[in-house]
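re: ur question from earlier - yeah i can do the single chain one, its not a big deal. heres the input i used so u can compare w yours
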Amino acid sequence: TVGLWSRFVGKPDVFKREETKTKAPSPPGDETQGEAQEEGGTGGGCGGIMLDPQASFSDKYDQLMKHIDGLCKPMGALGTLEDWAARLGALQGKVPAVSNPVCIVFAGDHGVARAIEDGGEACSSFPQAITKKILMSLHEGWAGACVLAEANNVKLRVVDVGVGTGTRNCAVEAAMSLGEVEAAIAAAEDAVVELAEAGHDAIVLGEIGIGNTTVSSLLLCALSGESPENCCDQGATKTKVPDPQVVRKKVAIIKKALARFPEYASSKVPRVRE
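and the output i got, formated as tokens:
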């Protein structure tokens, strides 16, 4: 999934930690490593690249990985945390630091999750009404996201973008009009800009809505050209035991939706609308 996602947000090598040969210890008198470990400093020449508006995300990422590799620890000792730190720093334009994080959870109903008698596909093991209950638990502060956010001193913001109204059944008709797509995107942009201007230096994105994994798998298929079999998994179920029948049902629903528009439009917005 990461490999598919990265086709649309950056070069594949940006998001894949390449194998790195063990670095030899710095010789006596070499100031580079000490500079890299200096508190609050960028180290290893990071500063110039980080502040250069012409530097690419990839260049910043690579420079930050050199900085991280120069810290006082075995190479790669922190695993994927190092990779994510480099991504965050490349986005922030500095050695990564987070002091005021916020999590935005977007909530909405998916038409494909409605009961069959209500014009949906009943794609989930849970009824669509559960979305409203989850939204209520978020507002009242006892949902899992609330507990995790409070425990980690992360502010939580919930944005309702269609609970109770939601989209139409994407398996039989366009889920949204272009106007609705643009309104949803604008709501997300407004929320992110508002929180960034309020001083939050890291924004975590989340979403709720029964049927969300069906819709996200459909989007992944439409945007990447991958088959539903490669993009679908079980999603939320009532037991911990995998049920192949659940996956087969989801695959069939997605194939039904994809069959409505076999030739994907060149623009991504019409595909999101569908």
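The CA atoms of residues 228 and 255 lie 7 Å apart. not sure if urs matches, ping me
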